[in-house]
Amino acid sequence: MCENGCHFSGQQVAAISITERVCSALSVAASCIIIVTFLGSRNFRRPINRLVFYATFGNVMANVGTLISESGVDHGANSALCQFQAFMIQWFMPADSLWAFVMACNVYLAMFHRYKTDHLRPLEWKYFLFCYGLPFVPALVLLFIESKSRGRIYGPAVQWCWISLKWDYLQIALFYGPVWLIIGLTFCIYARVGIYIFKQHRRLHKYTYTDTTIDSEMPVFVEADANVSDGGHPSIQHQGPNSDQVHPSLDLPNTPGDAQGLGISGSSPEAVAVRAYCKYALLFFLALLITWVPSSANRVYALSMSNQYLFGLTYASSFVLPLQGFWNTVIYITVSWRVFKLVPAQISRLETRSLPTLLAGRLHRMVWNTPFVNIVKRKLGYT
Questions:
Q1: How many Cβ atoms are within 10 Å of 196's Cβ, its own excluded?
Q2: Is 151 helix (H, G, I), strand (E, B) or coil?
């Protein structure tokens, strides 16, 4: 299963392989939930859900690599299957941390620069190029590099084909190092937001026993859509960046029990939106830690022990890494649970035979009307 440095028994190798494939299949199935619900109902197309939807494509492509499991290693380092598996893992597996980072950037822009959805949505095609274009460059370059002493960079790497053990320092330099740098930056953004929310809570809490009415300074992250046709309810937007308009006043509750989170009424759109984004932030960061801590610990241990691997850490890595799409789906369902409860009623109004056609048509309209495609159409003279 690996060239050297690990001495796993046949049963251990089989356990790792089965776990990788089962977790990968579970992740692909979970990703399909995001794709189907997002395309099937406008209620799910909130700004942060769109980013999760875009990230899902990377999750599925990474699972294509992890589903191959040890078959790439068995075919040999120079086989097309091994090189393809290594390329897919190097390209798409780090992309999930980049999507978590751009989600944090959206939170920062909305919180501190008063961005609303009209200003955030044009950034999404840039996010798409950033999250998939940035890891694509090293993944492609590594595909063509080899040396006489070490061979090709892509080759057997314990549980699958990836950067081979002979090039182990590149695993840190081009994979784990950048991923943890992005996780650190994401944590810094969320820490900054958390400090701001805490200060707002302290400031607003002083007024909970008064009849004072103050202006809300908290941004609203929900997307306005007064023409929701799938049974949803219109939401409210905050004013845009540098807006000079006065924010709507909120009457603070007279008892501390009515103040939720930021001292804002629990039923107000501001409180609901802020709580939803804070929940997303916490869950995404926890998902990143669950995904990357075991595999990073395994890599650090192997480096310190001259590429001697522990079965427990290797098995844990094979369990958590393929589950990126699954964790994203859990977060997606958790934050969108109220909308999910409307799905059975919506499905009952559709004819099953027309559902694939409906989803295909909506996917075509979404792709055809993206900002990037619109720019291309204008350049080519399409109207």
A1: 15
A2: strand
* pTM listed for this prediction: 0.75
What's the one-letter identity of residue 371?
P
Residue at 36: amino acid letter = V
Looking only at Cα atoms, what is the longest distance across the chain?
Answer: 78
Distance CA 277, CA 55 (A): 17
Burial class (CB in 10 A: 0-12, 13-18, 19+), 233: exposed
Tell whether 332 and 368 lie within a shared domain: no
Closest CA to 42 of 295, 235, 324: 235
Q: Same domain, yes or no, for 372 and 313? A: no
131 belongs to a structural domain: yes
- Amino acid at site 301: Y
Same structural domain, 377 and 306: no
Clarify whether residues 185 and 90 are in a common domain.
yes
- Burial annotation 148-165 (CB, 10 A radius, 16+ → b, else e): eeeebbbbbbbbbbbbbb
Question: What are the start-end ranges of the E strands in 183-224?
Answer: 213-215
Does 274 share its domain with 367?
A: no
Whether residues 24 and 95 fall in one domain: yes
In a domain, residue 376? The reply is yes
Length of the chain: 383
Residue 4, domain member (yes or no): no
Number of domains the chain is built from: 2
What's the CATH code of the domain at 283? 1.20.1070.10
- In sequence order, the 6+-apart residues with CB closer than 8 A to the CB of 229 are 42
Question: CB of 119 within 8 A of CB of 108?
Answer: no
How far apart are alpha carbons 157 and 100 in whole angstroms?
26
Taking Cα atoms as reference points, which of 25, 185, 167, 153 lies closest to residue 78?
153
Question: What domain range includes position 360?
Answer: 353-382
φ/ψ (deg, to 5) at 253: -70, 160
Residue 151 included in any domain: yes
Eight-class DSSP state of 255: S
The mean pLDDT values, 10 residues at a time, for the chain of 383 residues are 64 92 96 91 82 93 94 91 96 93 86 80 93 96 92 91 90 93 92 83 65 44 43 44 41 36 46 62 81 90 82 91 92 85 67 58 67 68 60
